[in-house]
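Lab notebook, bench 4. Still working through the backlog of constructs that have no structural model yet. Next entry is a single chain of 210 residues. Request: give me the C-alpha cells for it.
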Amino acid sequence: MRMLQRFLVALLPILALLAACGGESSADPFYQAVPKVCDIVSKQVISPYVGDVMGKRTDFVAKYVDKEGGVTADECSWDHTQEVRSGDRLLRTYSRRLTVVIVRYPEKDDYGYTGAQMAKNEYESTKKAARDTNALIREEPGLGQGAFLQTMGSADIWLRYRRGNLIVRVMFNIFDSTDPNVAKSENRQLLQSGVLAVAREVDAKLASSR
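Model written out:
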C-alpha cells in the first residue's frame, strides 16, 4: 500500500504537466472574438488626454488585416480639434487623436501555428523593426505578455503589446499648425502618458473578460 502511495505521489507532477499541455496555457489566453474597442475604453480615461469626446469606430489599420487567413480586428478613435480664428481668418488648428486597434489571430493557421504564436511573431518582428530604426523608446512591463513604446514620426507615440492571440496597438498624435516643434518634451510626455493609461485600461478589461 505504501509503495502505491509513493507511486501516485511521484505521478502527480507528470499528470499536471500532461493536463497543461492538453489545454490552454495561462500565460497565453485565447480570445474567441475581437472585443469592441469603443465599448472597453472609458471616457474617464480618454478625456484628460483627448477631451470630452465620444469614440468612433474606424478602420484606418483594421482594414489591412489578413481576413482570408482568419485574422479579425476592431478599431476605435477619439478626436478633438480646436480652431482659433480672427474673424474669417484661421490663426491656429490644434488637434489630438488617439486610436486603439485590437487584432485577433485565429486558433490555428494552415501551417499549424497557434494564434498566440502568430501574435508573438508579429510582436517580436515589429519590436525588432522599431529597434533597428531607432524608433524604440523602451519596453514597458506589466502589460500582457510584452509591450513596447515607439515613436512614429515627429508627433506620434505608439504602444504595442500582446495578450495571448491578440495584438493591441494604441496610437496617439498631436498636431499644431503653428508649432513646428510639436514633439517638444511636454507633449512627448503627454503622448506617452496617454497611450499607457489607455493600454492599462484595455489590458485590465481584456484580463477580466475571460
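Notes after review: The longest helix spans residues 185-208. The chain has a mean pLDDT of 84. Flag for follow-up if needed.
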